[in-house]
Amino acid sequence: MKKLICVVAVLFISISSFAQSFEKFEKEENVSKVSMSKSLFSLIGNLTEKENLSSEDKKVVDFINRITSFKMYSTSDSNLRSEMKSIAKKFKKSKEFEELMRINDGGKEVEFLVKSGKNDEIKELIMFVEGSGENESIVFQLSLS
């Protein structure tokens, strides 16, 4: 029983640390932020008349309606860039996330990480871009229901 409680506690701590990892940049002065809520995506998804859409367009609208949040953090501060990279590496090493794709082009690196749910549906997508623009790092985090 003690082992089960310890395992559940460690699992809960690791899940909550991932959930809050990038959110630590919300209040950083040297970080540009964009945050879009589920309500915005629901609004976008409801703007179209579904009966007039092709099957492909319906799939796009259904995907948009599954989005629960979108967040983007960007900084050129070297300390914060290092911190972002460190957090992205934690996600990459996690068993919950797998690397979809990595691009390295002239010192610019882009990594796509995905967390899958049941039936291999995407639950979360993280894109980490390092070296874009003037020594800037960017994180995109997309969560789906």
Task: Write a concise synopsis of the structure shown.
With 145 residues, the protein is an alpha+beta fold. The chain contains 4 helices and 6 strands; from the N terminus they run αβααβαββββ. It has a domain at 67-144.
* Number of E-state strands: 6
- Class from helix and strand fractions: alpha+beta
| Range of helix content | 25-40%
Q: What spatial order of strands do you see in the largest sheet?
A: 1-2-6-5-4-3
β-strand percent reads 35-45%
Helix/strand order, N-terminal first? HEHHEHEEEE
Average pLDDT rating: 80
- Total of DSSP H or I helical runs spanning 4+ residues: 4
Biggest sheet: strands, sense, closure?
A: 6 strands, antiparallel
Shape: globular
* Global Rg: 18 Å
Kindly list the characteristics that best describe this protein.
145 residues; alpha+beta
Structure in words:
It is a single chain. It is built from 4 helices and 6 strands. The protein is an alpha+beta fold. The protein has a domain at 67-144. It has a 6-stranded antiparallel beta sheet with strand order 1-2-6-5-4-3. Helix 2 runs antiparallel to helix 3 (55-66). The protein is globular and about 50 Å long. The protein starts with a helix and ends with a strand.
Question: Secondary-structure map with pairings?
Answer:
Elements: H1 2-21, E1 32-37, H2 38-46, H3 55-66, E2 67-75, H4 78-93, E3 97-105, E4 108-116, E5 122-132, E6 136-144
Antiparallel strand pairs: 1-2, 2-6, 3-4, 4-5, 5-6
